[in-house]
Amino acid sequence: MSQRIREDFEQYAVSVVEALRQKAQLERRGPVRLISHPDREVRDAVALLEDDQPFGELVATTRRAFHSKPSRRDESMWRHSVQSFFRRSGFYLRAAAGQAPPVDVVFAQYVGAFQSQERRVTYLAPIEHVYFARAQLDFGSFTVRRFSRDELATLLETSINRVFYEWALTEVRPLDDYWYVSLTKTLERRQPGEIRVNLADIEKVTPTFTSFPQVEEALLPLVSFPWQADLWRHEPREKQEYWHGFRIPFLIVVDEDLLRPPRSRPDIARLDREPDSDSTTGEERDTERPVIWTHLDTQETNTCEAFVRAIGDHVSLLATQSIDWQFFERARSYLLKGFFADGLEQLLWHITTVDALLGEDAPGAGTKRLARRVAAILGTTAKEQDTIRGAFFELYHFRSRFVHGGPLEKHTLTKHLREAREIARTVLVWFVAFLTHMQDVARREQLPAFSRNDLLALIDLNVKAKAELATILKASDALPDGFPSVPSWLASTPPQRTGIAGR
Fold first, then answer.
1. Which of 126, 137, 128 minimizes the C-alpha distance to 301?
2. CA 129 – CA 142 distance, rounded (Å)
3. Which domain covers residue 92, as residue numbers?
4. How many angstroms separate the CA atoms of 282 and 157, rounded?
5. Which residues pair with 130 in a beta bridge?
6. What confidence tens digit (pLDDT) does each residue in 438-480 have?
């Protein structure tokens, strides 16, 4: 890296400090201040600085220093990147306040921003309709937490956005009422104007199962929890008329790459809110509050944290292995799709979840076998299994009639949506434990990885079949080596039976 970039950087930084200091002094002179919009004045002063020669020279020098093949086509992109650095790093605002940091410190930050090959991005997904008893829940790879108003203002760079990025300025007042799925990822950073296109992927259609694929890895274990609204949560499960989970209205993206502008502000109008009221008198106030369907007390919050973290840990462990259990990945995605779907679409995706786990893509593999496997997993007695089988048959009937355009003799009720959700959820949670156990067995016994057909065959083994199989295995251990090819059994004289003498 040449000395020229340092010189051009220092020249521009000094000109910024001087220009903004003079602007501040002019504003303070005289008994009457005619300027009442300091944000606009700083923005206008910066616009003049960025149109001046020192800024243009710094952009050109920066391109030559960090771009092996600069061209006119990407010149504007490099200009925007240099512009973003001085704005998002806070240098302009601190200089305007007379608190500009040492130039050497800012230059090191500048070089580091262009040399970095990685960038940290934090995704914040507000959770609606749920109240937790704790401010933060730790799920290992992600957290669910609340932020104070000051924390949100810092995280969302409201002071910077108010001056330079009004389209990204977010009102934090309603946002501090919510818990957020908080997930941070380290992504590849590319230089301005660098575009990579894989021609082989142009015509490929990538399946998506939520509106926010960036946080699917966090949402998947969360939707496995048995969410239920307060209205039905304490009733016997068979009497619960419906179910209610949580909602994600939008996604806030915080990119720490200072060479990129901030993301657009979220649509706060999508938040589900209601008039606030006095808890004593019941009178409505002028303020609003989030709509809450599910209140989790301390014990329930702790249970939720332990459950979701365990599911997430097991799934992460399964994902690190080389075993090809793609059917399980598909089923998890279908459960996620069903969780956020509405009406009959819920039923379709939840039945598809079960089919992905227990169904077979083969002629003659019908609903009876699928229902039998569901009942074997969820029922502990013959009576329970019969009930579960019947319930699943009814749900599958609704699904088939709806998909194939047949008449619906019975109306689909909200309880059917709850039953479909619960069957799909519990079968998938069972599969997490099942696959983890079978993975341990294969490693401990040094066995090859179990295929999906192997796993389904194990599920199909009932008590009687297991006893018969044990008898067969015991008999096989007593067979001669090479069985069924035993030459001595083909001899003219039958072999003498062991254990019989004197005959």
1. 137
2. 20
3. 3-115
4. 37
5. 294
6. 999 988 989 888 899 999 999 988 767 777 778 887 888 888 8
For 42-80, write each residue's pLDDT tens digit. Answer: 999 999 999 999 999 999 999 999 987 766 677 899 999
Distance CA 448, CA 440 (A): 11
CA distances from 393 to 40, 335, 375 (A): 66, 19, 11
Q: Number of structural domains, the chain?
A: 3
Helix (H) or strand (E) holding 49: helix 38-50
3-state secondary structure (DSSP) of residue 399: helix
Contact indicator for 6, 104 with CB cutoff of 8 Å: no
What is the per-residue DSSP string for 156-185? TTHHHHHHH-GGG----TTGGGSEEEEEEE
| DSSP conformation class of 279 | T
DSSP alpha helices (H): ranges in 198-281?
A: 216-222, 230-233
DSSP sequence for 337-396: HHHH--THHHHHHHHHHHHHHH---STT--HHHHHHHHHHHH-SSHHHHHHHHHHHHHHH
Residue 485 lies in a domain: no
Whether residue 160 contacts residue 93, with contact meaning beta carbons closer than 8 Å, is answered with: yes
Listed residue (326, 334, 364, 363) closest to 351, CA to CA: 334
Helices 414-444 and 326-340, axial angle in degrees (round to 10): 160
pLDDT band, very low/low/confident/very high, at 503 (cuts 50, 70, 90): very low
Distances (CA, A) of 132 to 67, 124, 228, 298, 450: 49, 17, 13, 8, 40
Question: Could you tell me if 417 and 434 lie in one domain?
Answer: yes
Same domain? For 107 and 251 the reply is: no
How many whole angstroms separate alpha carbon 55 and alpha carbon 110? 14
Tell me whether strands 136-138 and 143-146 are parallel, antiparallel or unpaired: antiparallel
Neighbours of 449 (CB within 10 A): 14
Neighbours of 101 (CB within 10 A): 14
In the chain, the amino acid numbered 161 is: N
Predicted TM-score (pTM) of the model is 0.87
Q: Based on the fold, state whether residues 170 and 86 are members of the same structural domain.
A: no
What sign does the dihedral 386-388-391-397 (CA atoms) show? negative
For 340-365, b/e burial (b = at least 16 CB within 10 A) is bbeebebbbbbbbbbbbbbbeeeeee
